[in-house]
């Protein structure tokens, strides 16, 4: 899990209009400019049904974010897809790394 100052809160989502920067096979990433980098991982029940699986994917994503952060400050929202459940950790990390390089 990321430290609390690096996570987006519910109040941060109010009025936020991010633009989608990256659409991949494992994750979609939306970005908005900000003075400080903050992150969120949003998974709907429509995409991944079981709460255990949603939590497992969130842990993977947050661990990857902790290792690979974008260089410039942004508000980043990650929307994992159902393919992240069965995929390898290294493939997900590679895709997120490439996405952060394009930001």
From the helix content, strand content and strand pairing, which structural class follows?
alpha+beta
Number of E-type strands:
4
So how many helices? 4
Q: What is the string of SSEs from the N terminus onward?
A: HEEEHEHH
Characterize the overall form. Answer: globular
CATH architecture: 2-Layer Sandwich
Tell me the distance between the termini.
22 Å
Write up this protein.
The protein has helices spanning 10-13, 51-67, 83-86, 89-102, and strands at residues 19-23, 27-33, 38-41, 74-80. The chain is α+β, with helices and mostly antiparallel strands. The chain has one domain (4-102): Ribosomal Protein S5, domain 2. The longest helix is centred in the middle third of the chain and has 17 residues, at 51-67.
Characteristic terms for this protein:
about 40% helix; four-stranded mixed beta sheet; alpha+beta; Ribosomal Protein S5, domain 2; about 100 residues; 4 helices; single chain; globular
Write the layout of secondary structure elements.
Blueprint: H1 10-13, E1 19-23, E2 27-33, E3 38-41, H2 51-67, E4 74-80, H3 83-86, H4 89-102
Helix pairs in contact: 2-4
Quick overview:
The protein is α+β, with helices and mostly antiparallel strands.
């Amino acid at each position: 899990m990321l430290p609390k100052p690096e996570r987006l809160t519910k109040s941060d989502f109010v009025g936020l209009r991010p633009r989608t920067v990256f659409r991949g096979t494992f994750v979609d990433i939306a970005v908005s400019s900000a003075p400080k980098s903050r992150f969120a991982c949003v998974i709907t029940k429509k995409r991944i049904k079981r709460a255990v699986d949603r939590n497992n994917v969130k842990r993977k994503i947050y661990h990857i974010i902790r290792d690979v952060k974008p260089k410039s400050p942004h508000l980043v929202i990650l929307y994992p897809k159902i393919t992240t459940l069965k995929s390898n950790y290294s493939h997900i990390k590679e895709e997120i790394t490439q996405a952060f390089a394009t930001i």
